[in-house]
Amino acid sequence: MAKIEVIDVDFHYEPGRQVLKGVSLEVPSGSSTSIMGPNGSGKTTLIKMFNGLLMPTRGKILVDALGTSDTTVSRLAKKVGVIFQNPEKSFFSETVREEIAFGPKNMGFTDAEADVVVNDVSTKFGLKDYLSSNPFDLSGGEKRRLSIASVLAWGPEVIIMDEPTVGLDYQYRLFLIDLTQKLRNEGKSVVMVTHDVDFALQTSERSVLLNEGSVTWHGNLVDLLKSPSAFERANMSQTFLSSLCHDLLSSGASERSFAPVDVSSLLGEA
Amino acid sequence: MSLAFLRAYRFSKLDTPIHRLDPRTKLLMSVTFTLLGVTTLDPIEILALLLIQFAILISSRSLAFWLRSIRALTLFLVLILVMQMITTGNILQSVYFALRFVVVASATSWFFFTTSPEDLGRALEQVGVSADIALSFTLSMRFIPVIAEEFQSIFDAQRARGLEVGKGGLTERMKSMLPILVPLFVGVIRRTYEIADALELRGYGALPSKTRWKVLKLRRLDAIVLLMLVVLVAVSIYYRVFLPPFDLATLIMHL
Amino acid sequence: MANGLVVSLRDISFSYQGSPRPALERINLDIKGGEFVLVTGPSGSGKTSLARLVTGLIPHSYPGNLSGSATVLGEDVAKSNVHTLAQKVGFVLQNPENQLFALTVEDDVAFGPENLALPREEIVDRVDWSLSLTGLQDQRLRPPFELSGGFQQRAAIAGILAMKPKLLVLDEPTSSLDSVAARNFVKFLTKLRSELQATAVVIEQRLELFYTVANRMLVIKEGSIAVDDNPLSALDYCLENKLQANYPASYLFWKRYGEQVQGARDKPVSEPSAYVGPILARGRR
C-alpha cells in the first residue's frame, strides 16, 4: 500500500482555470520521488493537497488510506511535513530553539518532549551552537537548515520540499543530496518538487512529470532516463547528464548507478 | 463578512464614455455626488442623484457589478434602516437615509470601476500631489496583491507546521496570528529596502523634476460633463434655498 | 575611461556598518569594454557586495568602511552617487518583482527615462526599442503582478535597458527560471550583448549554462577573488586545488575522459554520447 495515493484528481481555483487534470500517482513508503515540470505546471498546487491545504475539486487523495477531506490539516501535517519555497520567510521566533519547537508544540508535544527533539535535530543539522540566536541572524545556508530542522523535528513520515535548490549554492545542494539519502535510509518518503533535472536525477528513484496540470509520465527514474521523449512532452529540456545516462543505459550499462544517479561513480571516483 | 462587494470596486477595461473621461473629471463627479448626497434628506434630490448614478452605471456597463455589491451590502442597509427607525420613528426618513447610503456607495463604485489604477496615480500627480506621495500611492496599489499572496504563503507554511487559527477566545486567536503577522511584517520591511534600492538604480530622484511620458488631457467630453456638473450643483443650491421642502406625505394626501 | 577600462578596482576592501567581518577584501579587478564576465562563489562570499560596489549602492545606500579606489565608466564610485552611476551601469537584482514599480509594463519601462528627464519623444522611442528587444510588445499593457516569473524578469531587464547602460550587471538571473526558460535566457543575453555592444557581468550558480559563453570567470571566496581566468582554466584551477564549485557535468566528464574522446582535446564536446565508450570501458576493467 502506498503512503500517499492520488486518485484521478482535478483542481481549479476558479471555474474555467483548471490547474490539475486527472492526476493519478503514488508515493511509496521509504522512497524518494521527484515531481518535475516547467513553472506553472501545477507542482506546488499538487503538494498542497498532500497535507490538506487544498482539497481536490474531483477525485481524492489518500494518506495512509485515509482521505484528506476526512481529516484536518494539522492531523495530516503530523505525517506529511512540507517545506515550501523560501522557507525563511516564515520565521517569526526570537530564538532558533523556539522556531524549531513551534511545529512539535502544535502537534501536541509536551515542553519536555519538545526539548528532546529540539536538541536532537539541532545537533543533526549543525545548529546546536545557535539555539539562542535569532533566526534572522543566521546565514543563508543555516536558515535553510533551520527550516528543514523545524519540520523534521516532529518526525513526519513523508517529507516534501518545494524547489529546495533555488537561490542557494553548490554546498547546499550536496547537503540536500546527502540528506535525502539519510532520510530514505530511515524509511521515510521524500518528495522533491524541482525544475532542476540534474538535482532530481541525483536524489530520486522515482519521478513524476507534470505539464499544464496533467501527468505526462510517472515511474522509475531509470525508465525515465531511457525515454528521452518524456522530457519533450513535459516541455522540459534534457541536460548533459540526463542525455549521458540515457546513452549509457541504451548501451547496456548496469542500472545500479542510476537510481538515483551517482555522478562520482560514473566518473570513476567511487 | 464577505469581501465580495469589493469586486464592484475593481477596474474593468472597457470602452464606454465614462471610461474615456479624464480621471480628474470622474473624481470631481464622485466627490460632488457624495457631498450633495450626504448633505440632503430631500427625497427628490436623493432620487435625482440615484437616477444619475444609474445613468452612469448603465452607460459604463457596470450595473451588474454594482448590483452584486449592493446585494452584499444589504446587511448594512437594513442596519441603517433599523437604526433610523429606532431614533426617529419615521419610516420615510429612514428609507431616505438608506437610499442616501446607496447614492454614496454607488458614486464611489463606478469611479473605481471605470478608472485604471495607473490613471488614478497619474491623476493624483497632475492634481498637484508631490511626486513622492504619488509614487507611494502607485507602489501601494502595485504591491497590494503581492503582499496578499505573501500572506497566503506564510499562512499555508505555518498551517503546514500545525498552526491552527480561529480557535479559542479572543486572546488565543490573536496569539495564533503572530506566526503569520510577524514574518509578513518583516517581509514587507525587507521588501521596502529592496524597492528603495531598485528605485535609485532607475534614477529616481536624480533630477529635481522628471518628464511625464503620458499626460492626462481634458477633452471635449470632459468639458461637457463638467458643465453638466456645474449646472447640477447650481440647480441643487437653488432648489435647497428657494423652494420649500418636499413632503411626500402631503403629496399623497393631495392626490 | 581613457584606457578603455569599464571597471577598475584597486585594493578595494569593504565591511558593512556594524559588521566586523569584511565583505570585500583587497579586490583588484579590471574589466574591459565588451567582456562577458561570469562571477561565481558560495552564498555569502561577496558576489552581491561586489555588484553593489560597481553600481554605487556601496557605499551610498549601504554605508560602511570602504577603502581603495573604484572607477566605473569614468566615475569615481566613492565620490559619485547611485543616480549618476545608474545612467551608465544597469543592475538587474535577483528578485525581479521588487524592480517593477508601475501598474503596466510599458509605464515601468518608461520610469527610468522619465527620471532622467528625457524628452517625451525620446522616452517613447526607448520604450518601444526596449520592449521589442526583450520580446514584450504583447505584454506592454499588462500589470507586472499578472506576469509569469520569466516575463517579470524580462520586464525588469527592459526597464534597465531603457536607461541605455554601457555595463550590465545581473544577479543570478536564472535562479528562478526552469531549464527551458534558462536556456532561452542565455540565448537572449548573448543577442542582447551583441546588439548593445555592452559589457556584461553575470553572477551565477548555474555554471553549465554560462561557462561556454562567458570569456572570463571570477570565483569569489570570503570576500576576495580566488580565481580570475577564462572559464575552462578557472575550473581547472578549482579542480586542481580541490575547491568547492558547481562544476558543470559536461566539464567534469570532459576532464575525466576528454583525452579518450575525439575532438575533445581543447574544449568539452557538447555531445554526451561521446563519453559512453570510455565510461563503459572503465566499468569493465
SS elements, strand count of chain A: 10
Low-confidence region ranges of chain A: none
Q: CATH H-level name of chain A... which superfamily?
A: P-loop containing nucleotide triphosphate hydrolases
Order of helices and strands of chain A: EEEHEEHEHHHEHEHEEHHHH
> Largest chain-chain contact?
A-C, 36 and 37 residues
Count of the separate structural domains of chain B: 2
In CATH, the architecture of chain A is 3-Layer(aba) Sandwich
Q: What kind of sheet is the major sheet of chain A?
A: 6 strands, mixed
The main sheet of chain A orders its strands as: 6-7-8-3-9-10
Question: How many structural domains of chain A?
Answer: 1
Radius of gyration of chain A (CA) equals: 19 Å
Specify the oligomeric state: heterotrimer
Report the mean per-residue pLDDT of chain A as an integer: 91
Number of strands of chain B: 0
Number of DSSP helical runs of chain A: 11
Question: Which series of helices and strands of chain B comes N to C?
Answer: HHHHHHHHHHH
Unreliable stretches of chain B: none
Question: Total number of helical segments of chain B?
Answer: 11
Overall helicity of chain A:
25-40%
Report helical residue fraction of chain B.
over 70%
Describe, in plain words, how this protein is organized in 3D.
The complex is a heterotrimer of chains A (270), B (255) and C (285). With 270 residues, chain A is an alpha/beta fold. Chain A has eleven helices and ten strands. Chain A has helices at residues 43-48, 73-79, 96-106, 111-124, 140-152, 170-185, 197-203, 221-226, 229-233, 240-250, 263-266, and strands at residues 4-12, 18-27, 32-36, 58-63, 66-67, 80-83, 158-162, 189-194, 206-211, 214-220. The longest helix of chain A is centred in the middle third of the chain and has 16 residues, at 170-185. Chain B has helices at residues 17-20, 23-38, 43-59, 63-72, 74-88, 91-114, 117-127, 131-159, 170-201, 220-242, 248-254. Chain B is 74% helix and 0% strand. Chain C is of the alpha/beta class. Chain C has helices at residues 47-55, 57-60, 82-86, 105-115, 120-133, 149-161, 179-196, 207-210, 231-240, 249-257, 276-284, and strands at 5-16, 24-32, 36-40, 64-72, 75-76, 89-92, 167-171, 199-203, 216-221, 224-229. Chain C starts with a strand and ends with a helix. Chains in contact: A-B, A-C, B-C. The A-C interface holds A 38-40, 139-141, 166-173, 195-198, 235-237, 239-241, 243-244, 247-248, 251-254, 263, 266-268 and C 41-44, 94, 148-150, 172, 175-181, 183, 205, 208, 244-246, 248-250, 252-253, 256, 270, 272-273, 275-276, 279-280, 282-283.
